[in-house]
Structure formats: structure tokens, C-alpha cells
Amino acid sequence: MKFHYCYFSFFLILIILELITTSSLAYAFLSTDYYHRKCPVAEGIISQKVSAWIKKDPTLAPAIIRLHFHDCAIRGCDGSILLNHTGSERTAFESATLRGFQLIDDIKFELERRCPKTVSCADILTAAARDATILAGGPFWEVPFGRKDGQTSLAREASMVPHGHENVTALLEFFQARGLDMLDLVALSGSHTIGRSTCHSFMDRLYNFNGSGEPDPSLNVYYLKLLRKRCKSELDLVYLDAITPRTFDTTYYTNLMRKVGLLATDQSLFSDVRTAPFVEAFATQPFLFNSQFAVSMVKLGNVGILTGSSQGEIRVNCNYVNAA
């Protein structure tokens, strides 16, 4: 399969159309200047805190992006993943490897000191994901603000998030149910250009793919040998991008074309004829990927939002709903 450069303008038009649509939808409920008068220091504080924490621990960059996705994927971007009580999403088995909660708490503490009861936890997490992307070498985008925090979080709903074993059809259905499309699926999967995964998420690909007793045939044989050496137990960690694991770039897509995608869901994006052209476009045109990733992150941040005085609340502590 070869990406023909005559398709460049086609993909660019798609991205421009998505940007126009996304902007109109986001700004119908949210606004980039939402805190300009209410809390003008909000974005600065979030950016400074994210930078300080990631400087100490670079692995927090992909962790925050992932935390944001898990939040938006279940009940919408309402900060429900941050609630820390028995039976919440955060306490579910599927959430066991999520990280970055302390960073969000640190940001919230400072914002409550400077602008009490003003900046929602949902907005903090959304902006932190943007800033984490930038620090990893990814694109900048304006974050529309004005989300309220949800008051419900259920552990049983955490299983709704893709686990790394779904096929493209299932992934598309998951995304479409949240107002996202095929282009968003391929672009947002590109966040796997940084970060790590436990071997548990792909161990079946190494030894018993789909119950066949054999490894996944779509896995590069040399990569297979490497992964078998790295995965002594299911709790061991492996980089999602074996080539440039700490740099936000398009190597993730190049890896898929070389059959070195770590998760089955990743590799399926190049195996499936519906998504393969987007993979190849992003692999060969970094500008397209960066532009679309920014657009798709804005769309993700607009999923299931709570706005207005009658929806949600501004939590004082991101771990708990406000006292009645």
C-alpha cells in the first residue's frame, strides 16, 4: 500500500472541515476565554504545575493524556474518573494502571487558593492533557473551558473503555457512540507514540492469539522475539513505541506499517482497509497528524460535557463530590 501525494489535499480538506465543525460545536457550550475574568491565572497555573511534575517524571505525560481519555470515554469529560470512593471508576480493575491523580490534586489545591470554587476538575484535566502533549513534543491547541464536574462514578462502567483486544469495527462503534469518527480513532490512537503498556494487554499476541495456540501472524517476527524476552510476567512494562518511546511523533504509524504495533488494536488500524489509508497518511505527513490530533483532542474534550447552572458542580476537592 502506498500513500499517493494527490491524497494530501483530500486529507487536508477533511481536517479543515473537522476543525470548523469541532469549533462550532465546542464553542456552542464552552469558550476559550471562559476563565479570563473569573480566574485569569488558571491556564498559567495548570501549565506550570504540569511542567514541573513532568520534568521530574516524564512518564506522567502519557499518563495524563490517558487519564483524560478514560474520563471522557465513560460518562463524558466530567472528572468522574477522579472521584475516589468505594465503587467509583477509579477503584475498578480496569483503572488500576491509571496515574496522574496527585498532579491534578496539586493543580486543584493551588487553584482553590487563588480562585476558590471556580475552576472545575474536568477543565483542569482537559487542559493538563493538552500541556502534557506539548511537553512531549506534540501540538498546541486552544482548550475551550466551562465544563462542570459530574457527581456520579461507577466502577462497573470502567470496563467500557477499550482494552486493546477489540477489532476496528468495535472501536469505531465505541467512538461513534461518543460523537467521534474514524479519523478521530486513528488520530487519537497516535497518542500511543509515547507511554508504556503492561504485558497483560498483549500477552495473547505472543503465544496464543485468538485461541490459536500460535502468535499473532500480524506481528513482526523479530519484534515478537523481543517482546517475549521483555515480558517475563504480565505486569512487566513495554514501550508502546519501540523506536522513539518518549517523543511525540509519527513513528507510531511507521511502526504499524512495519508490523511492530504493540497492541492488537494498534496493529489492526493498518490491517483494516478502512483505517489503513489514514495510518499511511499520518506516517508520511507529520503536519497532517499534528493538525488532526489537535482537532480530535478538542472533539474528545467536548464529549458528554456538563454545562450551565443546572448541570454538575465545581468540586472543591477533585476526589470527592461537594458536601450537600
From TrEMBL:
Gene3D superfamilies: 1.10.520.10, Peroxidase, domain 2. Keywords: Calcium, Disulfide bond, Heme, Hydrogen peroxide, Iron, Membrane, Metal-binding, Oxidoreductase, Peroxidase, Secreted, Transmembrane, Transmembrane helix. Removal of H(2)O(2), oxidation of toxic reductants, biosynthesis and degradation of lignin, suberization, auxin catabolism, response to environmental stresses such as wounding, pathogen attack and oxidative stress. These functions might be dependent on each isozyme/isoform in each plant tissue. It comes from Stylosanthes scabra. It is an enzyme of class 1 (oxidoreductase). It is found in: Secreted. This is Peroxidase. Its EC number is 1.11.1.7. Its cofactor is heme b; Ca(2+). PANTHER family: PEROXIDASE 6, PTHR31517. It comes from the Eukaryota.
